[in-house]
Amino acid sequence: MARPRKPLLSRDRIVTAALALIDADGLAALSTRRLAAELGVSGPSLYNHFATKDAILDAAADLVVDQVDLSMFGDGRDWRTALLDWGRSYRAALAAHPHIVPFLAVGPGLRPAGLRMADAVFGGMVDAGWPPAQATRIGALMRFFVTGSALGSFAGGFVGDAEAYDPADYPHLGQAHLLARHPERVDNAAFETGLRALVDGLDQQFRALDGTAG
Known about the structure:
Shape: flat
Distance between the termini: 81 Å
Number of strands: 0
Radius of gyration: 22 Å
Mean pLDDT: 92
Number of helices: 8
Order of helices and strands: HHHHHHHH
Strand content: under 5%
Structural class: mainly alpha
């Protein structure tokens, strides 16, 4: 009987395995030796598809960004609604892969999905009437806000022990231990509050551009 063939090695298979490894054990866990072992191949075989480990990491990061919905910038949605919908989709994609967020936070570099996202956001803002310089700042501030929110849990940073926060030392943290019980709900509500505050503030600036504020 013929021996079963190993699955063919491909760029997609390598990238998917790399992202799974990062999700499980963090950025530091990614090495060509570890990745090759996970794939059941020799280390040098990876270089038939990627020149360096950094190229694999770039592709894994781009796979995450490729999950972000950008349709709102081309389907006629108002720029305010587009920013809200994009911000939520962007955060959801990053929150699903928190270990790779620090790498994504440095910017898109030459990654295709990252550049498509930057182009869509900038184009959407300019088409809506924002000056190019302001459109650039909007893309930057949204990236700062979304990536920051995806780096970790605010509520999950507190312990659930009611005795942990001595009122003599922290008189205003008497209920802080309750945050740890519902971290996702607290974090999601905080993100939504911040996102709406950002867009509301931008709306005031936009109205002021043509003197309609007031």
